[in-house]
Amino acid sequence: MIRTTSNQPRRTRLTLSTERPEPSVVRITAHGEVDASNAAELREYVFRHATDCRNLVLDLREVTFFSSAGFAALRNIDIRCGDTNVIWTLQCGSIVSRVVDLCDPHQTMQQTRD
């Protein structure tokens, strides 16, 4: 019998949560990894849970991997917020910030960093 063991770390799935600190404010927090397999899930979650807010805080500080597909989701969120007059804040750590800086060199997407 041959048994193989992978030394690769297990991928952390994406978990999302929502809180409403005030009636017109939605705070969405993501934990885990955002890649091509779940970037649409992030985008749709934000669209679904931020429909009736005036201010959105998207907290990605606990994201451990962030791909360009995640950036595409952020761009869609940015456009939707602009179209619906929602003021949004992107909170990110170094992992997300690095991708946003590379994909948005003119810094059109506002972000707050750790």
From TrEMBL:
Give all residue intervals belonging to the STAS domain.
Answer: 23-77
Instruction: Give the span(s) annotated as Disordered.
Output: 1-20
Biased composition of type Polar residues is found at 1-18
- Fetch the InterPro entries from UniProt: STAS_dom (IPR002645), STAS_dom_sf (IPR036513)
* Coiled coil regions in record: none
Name used for this protein in its record: STAS domain-containing protein
- The species this protein belongs to is Mycolicibacterium flavescens (Mycobacterium flavescens)
